[in-house]
Every structure is written in C-alpha cells, then in structure tokens.
Amino acid sequence: MNQPNKQLRHPLDDLLRTDRIPHIWCPGCGIGTAFSACLTAMKKSGIDLEKTVMISGIGCSGRGAGYVNLDSYHTTHGRAIPFATGMKLANPELNVVVFSGDGDLFAIGGNHFIHAARRNVDLTVVCVNNFNYGMTGGQVAATTPFMARTTTTPAGNPDAPFNLPLLAYASGASYIARWTILHARDLMESIQEAILNRGFSFVEVLSPCPVNYGRRNKEKAMDSMRIYQERTLIRNDARPWELDIDFDKGVILGKFIETERPTCTDRYDTVCRPKELLEEMKGSKP
Amino acid sequence: MRPAVLTGEYFMTGDVACAEGALAAGCRFFGGYPITPATEIAEHISGRLPEVGGTFIQMEDEIAAIASVIGASCAGVKSMTATSGPGFSLMMENLGLAICTETPCVLVNVQRAGPSTGLPTQGAQGDMMQARWGSHGHYEIIALAPSSPQEIFYQTIDAFNLSETYRVPVLIMTDEMIGHLSERVVIPDAKTIQTVSRPSPKGRKDRFNPYEAGPNGVAPMAAAGEGYHIHVTGLTHDQRGYPVMTVEAQEWMMNQLVGKIRRNLDDIIRTEAYRLEDADIVIVSYGVSARTSLAAVDEARDQGIRAGLLRLITVWPFPESQIRELAKRVKGFLTVELNLGQMHLEVERCAAGRAPAFLVGHPGGTIIPPDDVIQALKEHF
Questions:
Q1: To the nearest whole angstrom, how far is the Cα of A32 from the nearest Cα of chain B?
Q2: Class of domain A27-284 as given by CATH
Q3: Does ipTM surpass 0.95 in this model?
Q4: Which of A6, A114, B238, B358 has CA atoms 20 to 30 A from the CA of A146?
C-alpha cells in the first residue's frame, strides 16, 4: 500500500490539493517552480487566503488553479483575465491572482491583458513563459524567439516575439517584473510585491519546456538553467524597450516598474457612484 | 439616488424595460459591449447600477463581456450581459463554460437579421437554433421570448429567478422590434416582486462538494471568498469539482447538467394559449411574431377559420408534450417566425406526422403582416 507518510509534509501542503498530486507537468518543466514560488509568495504576503482566488486559463500553466487548495477557477482559453476582472469588480475584497501561460495570456488572450492593464484592475498576473504551446505538443507562440523551431515552424520561427514587459508598460501596468525559474527567490519576492501592490501587477517567469521546446532547439533542461544563469543580467532600472528576449545578446531580468495609481474600482467609485452612496458603502465596511 | 425598483407607470422601450427588470431582479453586475440593437440596455444600466451599489463595465469585446459576467456571478453577484447577432456568436464558447460550471447568469440577445453583419438595425428571429445548440457539446438551456416591453420587464426577473434556481445561464431571445418598441410599462411595488437566489451551502466547509446535487437536481453554490476552497473547471469534473478524464465522469456530469432541466420541465416551461380550446388550427409563435399571430387569430375567427395561438414564452426547453397532445386533435400547425424555419422544425418533429406542420417564415428586417398568416391558413387548411 502506498500510504502517505504524514511526517513528510511539504511546507506548502496546506495550500495544495494533495489529493490531486501527481500533477501533469513533465520532468524538467519549470511550471512547478513558478507555481511554488507563487504559493510561497501568497503565503508570505500575509493576505487573507480565505479571500484569495486563483484563476487560470487553458494550457500547462493553466492547470495551476487545479492544484491550489483555495477558491480556484479554471476558465476557458485566453479568458482568465476578463473572468478575473468580473470577479474582482463584483467583490473588491477578494485578492485575485491569475496564473497562466504565455499562449493563453498573450496570443488568444492578448487583448484582455492590455485592457486590464489599461484599466489598472487590481489583479496579479503571473505568466509562465515557456516560449511555446506545451500542452498541444510544442507549436509556435507569440513569445517564441526568432528562428526557434517548433512543430508549426519546422524551418524556424520567421516572426519576432513579444517583449511582454514592454507590452505591459505601454498598456499601463502598475508593477512589472521578469525572472526565470532559476531565480526562484527573486521570483517569489517579486510575486509577493506584486500581490501587495494595488493595481494591475505583472510578473513574467521564463521557464524551460524540455519535452516540447527544448527538444527541438537543442536545449536540455539543464542547458536552459545554464542559459538562465550565464546569459541573463539583473537590471532593475532597465527601460522596458530594452527587454527583448534574445539569449544570444543576453536577457535582462529584474523589477522594472513599481508605481501606484488609482485602480479600476477606485476610479469607478469616485467617478460613477453618487457621493452619498459612497459614504454609505465606506461606513458599512469594517 | 433612485431605488433599484422604480415603481410607477412609464412609456419605455423594451431595452430599457429589460434593464429595469434586471435591477428589480437583483442584478448588480453588467459586463457589456456595444452592439445594435442591444446597446440601449447597456447604456441604461450603466447609469443605474452605480447608484444601487452595483457595477457596470464595458469590456473590450463580447468574449470578455460574458467572461466577466461569469466571474462576477462566481463572486456571488447576480450578473448579466446583452448583445445581438455577431456578439451572440462570440459569446458561445463561454456560454458553454457557464453551462458546464453551472454558473447562473442572464444573456439577452436582441436579435437582428443575419447571417454575419446582416441588417444591424432591423430585427429577426434567426438565432433560435443557435440559442439551443450554439455552444459545442450537448446541453440543455432555458431561453425566453418576450412579446412586449412590459413582458420583457417581468421576463428578465423570471430569467434571473430560473437561472438562480437551476444554476444555468438563461437566454432572453428578444428581437429588435420589441427592444426598440416603446409601450406602457408598469413597474410594481418592490414588495410584490419575488426574487430567487441560488441555493447556498450548509454544513461543514471542509466537507463541501460543490457539485453534489440537492433534491431538485441542483447543487448549492459557494461564492469565491466564502471559505469553501472550491475548484471550478470547464473540464469534465466529478462532484468535488475535480477534473476527471473518464467516460464515467462524462456520463455522470452530463446527467447532472441535462437532468436538472429535463426533470423540472413542468416548473420551467411557460406558454400562453389564446382561443386554443376549440381551435383546430394551432398557430405557434413567439416574440414580435406572436403579436402578428394574435391579430391573425382574431381575423381568421372573423372569417370562420377556427385558429388559436400557442405562444411560446419559454422557447427552450421546447413544450414537446403540449405539441404532441395538440397533434392528436387538431388539423394542423402553422409556425410564424422571422426566420426560414427554426422553431417550425421543432413543431414538425413533435407533431410527428399526426398533424401537418406549415411555416410562415421571413428572413427578417421587417415584421410578418397578419395578412400573410391569414393567406397561409387559407392555403394550407
């Protein structure tokens, strides 16, 4: 019998649906590291976890919501952010974390990302960027580097990838950071800051996909980690337009933007609501 | 600050009456996107929601609009959206998410003529089968069809109540004519309006199964932030809400989704009969076309034709047994609708050859005049 040893508990077990383990992520995949950094950040941030929700879209990273032992919603492909927007606006007391992948958030869901950032909806968006569509077997994504091979770009990707922090910056995000899963502690701290930052907060996590992306680009799981160590540069003051991903030239990591401006809910309340109602609503809050 | 229920007598359009009905039903979130001829619903409710403590947001497209509505409903707030043709098409995928996750919400389709961009400012009833089958997979759905601004006010309340009772998205399949028609609308005293909210969970939070059905086949629903640690997914799931990729899980879940509607047809189906008791020809119609049909029945009777009207108030689920019963005793059916035969197919199916079924259809852009109905009655019977 495979009885779980009660003494061997992982410190994050109380945040996990342990009855759903083993998870679906492949050996060498980085999503688990990004996911545990996210859970650790949620725990360390001191927010009320009973009022915290994780929302995912579709894809490998989109399975995140299925493993967290909190209120969690696994929505449709690309639609985690508008779902989260509705939930946050309907109940602003909730802490809403969107955990999903690059294809989900930036190809099919790209329009929703820029509008939620523009409105400064108080969400935390963690994007695991593994440079391809892993769940469906490794197709080209909006983040696939130029000339990288995928199942739908067998001769190499002819297109340029998105610079996600620049997109977030241009759209109005309040907090923007990028790390790799090798920088697990910095990543965790950034997610923690992102959760505590009021407004639309975005953390990009570069992550290996050895089975689908690495295999076709001569990059084993350990090679990816070496690249993340040797060909990255931490520069918190970098300007968003300097953040293109090209490992041959070096990729910049860090916390690039941290600002505070009124959130979507703040502005709705002050602009749209009658003043007497606003005072009533404030009075009723503990 | 005006109250949520604007008790009084008004001259208002169907679109505005729909928005006021929603507020009276307890709707406190609207996620929308402008589209003719449904825009006025969003316009009106955008000014009303903030003064009753609710929230309006105009999203970046219809896909986002319905996604925000489902998210808001999962936060425990009665939510809706309103759209028309192309927007309705864009909402189909997430309509399926609401069905699969059993999230109550109301979706209004102020129908215009299609396909594609069609006649944006002119009405039709061409989305009736899309309402039934537009999202992928097999499911049951509830759809209502109002015939006047007054009725859309009450139907919107009814739509929310059905949606909350059965944890299913409810469609209001109105049309441009009713949406833009101005008529007398009476909004009653707030105390007389009955509203229903989704069943809430009871018992220990750590033992709660989000999809364990109650006696009427519907599971209690916990909102985000209530401490139940629920998981909600559009994947096939078990009663814990966990994804399970097996044939057995698919059978179990589909039985839940379909069964809760099929087992409660008597509670859900609403029809109205007009001069039907002694009729030997049954006109079946709904929405704006039912107004045409009403005039046609009186005119036919004056001419000695014994016609009666069965007006569909719920178009889905379809009143199959009523049509079957009528088919045993009448000479035939005539369906009147602004498309080239959609609900007509259902009438024909349920009449099952016991009585012939004919159609007075039109591709939309105008209403069907009563004379066309009279002419068809004379031609076929």
A1: 19
A2: alpha beta
A3: yes
A4: A114
